[in-house]
């Protein structure tokens, strides 16, 4: 009987301790700040402005924007992005033209100008910041997967 | 009427009887200072942001749009006020611009843009006036602060450096050619392109009608 109680007590203690540990290791923006207080805001990370085109992790990925876009107006009146990326503008801007997919309606018809579906560039294209990720990213691209599969097969042969 | 004119002319021509030459000279000098100074002070008063944003037309439309932009908030805290960009600094040109502004007083009195809707409707035209002015004077008001000589393009991003090297330093384009809509929002540019090339549109519609 005494043994059993001790065992139960030990299990309970372990469970509570574990819960407390788990609670501590949850990544939140607030960190350990008590509910009633305001956490110190994080430093706003800088936007990557290297002007170097970034690798695409898979072919369908909308390319990342390698430049700042502060104050670029995109609304009913004007689309600042298209003043450089449109078909007519690229001779002057030397920017890559929006690809032909940006002209396709949803029935895969090519329209005369950028389709309304692609008008709001920031829906798909984003800038990157120098922020450290809160959670580690385990993404591997298709080349690594193929390499892995080849190695596995090579090993089993 | 003619008699009055003749009498006045006579009084102006005749040497003064009551006042000494010294008094008249000094008086003229002092009054000159007062009037000329007063005129310029009044002119300077109309050349402040407080004056410009005294009317809701400017305060609620263009001024609020300026506030989040780099010409109002930035890391070093230097800023441009309305007249820095919209009124020439040189005296003769300033007076010319101030005379043009009498039209704006007219607009204020008759409420040409006294609602947001009216303002938006007129925005393209108003913006085009400013663009045309800056194109014509080679972006003089921009260059009052930003000079090509002092611009160190090695401290710019590649994208900006290349563009400045190609277009600014060669004089092929001027600041406003590329930097439209940096201090206020852009008007409806779809409409603008139709208005910019009326011959092309006319030719095209002639072609399409055939």
Q: Can you give a write-up of this model?
A:
The complex is a heterodimer of chains A (157) and B (210). Chain A has helices spanning 2-25, 82-85, 90-93, 142-156. By secondary structure, chain A is mainly α. Chain B is an all-alpha fold and 210 residues long. Chain B is extended, with a radius of gyration of 25 Å. Chains A and B meet through loops of A and helix 10 of B.
For this entry, give a set of tags:
heterodimer; A: about 160 residues; mainly alpha; Flavocytochrome C3, Chain A, domain 2; 4 helices; about 0% strand; elongated; B: about 210 residues; 2 domains; 13 helices; about 65% helix; extended
Outline of the structure:
The complex is a heterodimer of chains A (157) and B (210). Chain A has 157 residues and is mainly α. Chain A contains 4 helices and no strands.
| Biggest pleated sheet of chain A | none
Radius of gyration of CA atoms of chain A, rounded to a whole number: 26 Å
Number of helices of chain A: 4
The quaternary organization reads as heterodimer
Largest interface: A-B, 16 and 17 residues
How widely separated are the two ends of chain A? 58 Å
Enumerate the spans of chain B where pLDDT stays under 50 for 5 or more consecutive residues.
none
The overall pLDDT of chain A, averaged over residues, is 85
The largest pleated sheet of chain B is described as:
none
Percent of residues in beta strands of chain B: under 5%
Order of helices and strands of chain A: HHHH
Shape estimate of chain A:
elongated
Tell me the number of helical segments of chain B per DSSP (H or I, 4 or more residues long): 13
Low-confidence stretches of chain A: none
What's the rounded overall pLDDT mean of chain B? Answer: 89
Shape of chain B: extended
Name of the top-level CATH class of the domain at 47-133 in chain A: Mainly Alpha
Give me the Rg of chain B, rounded.
Answer: 25 Å
Under CATH, the topology of the domain at 47-133 in chain A can be stated as Flavocytochrome C3, Chain A, domain 2
């Amino acid at each position: 009987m005494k043994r059993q109680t001790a065992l139960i007590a030990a299990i309970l203690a372990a469970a509570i301790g574990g819960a407390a540990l788990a609670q501590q290791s949850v990544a939140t923006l607030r960190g350990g700040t008590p509910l009633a207080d305001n956490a110190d805001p994080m430093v706003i990370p800088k936007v990557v402005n290297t002007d170097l085109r970034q690798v695409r992790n898979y072919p369908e990925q909308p390319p990342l924007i390698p430049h700042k876009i502060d104050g670029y107006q995109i609304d009913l009146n004007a689309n600042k992005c298209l003043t450089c990326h449109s078909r007519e503008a690229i001779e002057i801007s030397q920017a890559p033209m929006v690809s032909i997919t940006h002209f396709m309606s949803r029935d895969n018809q090519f329209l005369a100008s950028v389709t309304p579906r692609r008008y709001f560039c920031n829906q798909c294209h984003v800038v990157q910041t120098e922020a450290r990720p809160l959670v580690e990213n385990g993404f591997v691209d298709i080349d690594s997967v193929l390499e892995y599969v080849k190695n596995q097969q090579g090993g089993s042969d | 009427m003619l008699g009055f004119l003749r009498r006045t002319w006579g009084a102006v021509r005749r040497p003064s009887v009551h006042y000494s030459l010294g008094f008249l000279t000094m008086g003229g000098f002092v009054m000159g200072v007062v009037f000329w100074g007063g005129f310029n002070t009044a002119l300077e008063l109309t050349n402040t942001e407080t004056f410009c944003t005294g009317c809701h037309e400017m305060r609620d439309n263009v001024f609020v749009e300026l506030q989040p932009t780099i010409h109002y908030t930035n890391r070093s805290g230097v800023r441009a006020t309305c007249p820095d960009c919209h009124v020439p600094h040189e005296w003769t040109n300033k007076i010319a611009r101030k005379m043009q502004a009498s039209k704006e007083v007219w607009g204020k009195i008759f409420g040409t843009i006294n609602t947001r809707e009216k303002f938006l409707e007129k925005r393209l035209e108003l913006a085009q006036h400013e663009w045309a002015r800056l194109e014509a004077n080679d972006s003089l008001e921009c260059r009052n602060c930003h000079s090509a000589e002092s611009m160190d393009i090695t401290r710019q991003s590649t994208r900006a450096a290349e563009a400045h090297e190609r277009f600014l330093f060669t004089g092929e384009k001027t600041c406003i050619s590329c930097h439209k809509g940096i201090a206020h929002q852009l008007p409806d540019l779809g409409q603008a392109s139709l208005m910019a090339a009326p011959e092309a549109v006319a030719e095209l519609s002639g072609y399409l009608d055939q």
